[in-house]
Amino acid sequence: MTRPPTAAQRRVIDAADPVTGRLRGTESQLATLVKRGLAFRHPRPPHDHFLTPEGHRVRQGITQAPEPAGEAPASTGVFAARVGGEEAAAEAGPVRRREVHSAWQGLLELRRMTNPGGATDRPCGWERTHLVQAAALALEAAGHGPAGQEGGGYRVRETPQPEAVAVHEPDGEALRACAATLEGTGWQVSEHREPRGGTRYLLASPRRA
């Protein structure tokens, strides 16, 4: 797990605009938050800084611990997008639903602030560098169930292809529902069969326009 923000960093995060996540602080403080993935610098003037989805979760008291891409994160008691295969994947109580909803709203705000024209219907730069986590968050936010240690549910994994993730779901109808969700949240999706066994899976890539 990454170390928690310092007291000074926490004050900057807590003082962020409650709607936009806009930050105020010294250049050093803001640069450190960007380096830690808790903030980003807007590419257009006046180049203000805003909270990333992780930053929003830290402000709400949910510390993000980044996981190796393509692997199911270990159960650490902190928020992480469920990619499928986690022990706690079957747990979907009201607290978890609130956390996921908050993370998804933060991601939509990040899209609005960084995509040209404020478009929220396609992935932003953060999602393109966190493909597995972004796709998994879109699925979980829409109500799809991630796979547990055993049993059905979606699994999102890295692929050798650039800007593409694989989505596995043993139930054919649920797989098609996952495809519809991803397409509706700005991903390009195609269905394929594994060379061995012929099992169907999805390839999903962030749509650019």
What would your notes on this structure say?
A four-stranded antiparallel β-sheet has the order 4-5-7-6, with helices on one face. A three-stranded antiparallel β-sheet has the order 1-3-2. Mean pLDDT is 82; it is low at 63-78. Helix 3 (53-59) packs across helix 4. 35% of the residues lie in helices and 14% in strands. The chain has helices at 7-14, 27-35, 53-59, 94-114, 125-129, 131-141, 172-184; strands spanning 22-23, 39-41, 49-51, 155-158, 165-168, 187-193, 200-206. The protein has seven helices and seven strands; from the N terminus they run H-E-H-E-E-H-H-H-H-E-E-H-E-E. A hairpin with a 7-residue loop joins strand 2 and strand 3. The chain is α+β, with helices and mostly antiparallel strands and 209 residues long.
Report a brief summary of the structure.
The chain is built from seven helices and seven strands.
> Strand share of the residues?
5-15%
Shape: globular
**How many strands, what sense, and barrel or not for the largest sheet?**
4 strands, antiparallel
Order of SSEs, N→C? HEHEEHHHHEEHEE
Q: How would you write the strand order of the largest sheet?
A: 4-5-7-6
Gyration radius, to the nearest Å?
17 Å
Question: How many separate helices?
Answer: 7
What distance lies between the first and last C-alpha atoms, to the nearest angstrom?
36 Å
Could you report the average pLDDT, rounded to the nearest whole number? 82
Kindly name the structural category.
alpha+beta
List low-confidence stretches: 63-78
**Number of E-type strands:** 7
Considering DSSP H and I runs of 4 or more, what fraction of the residues is helical?
Answer: 25-40%
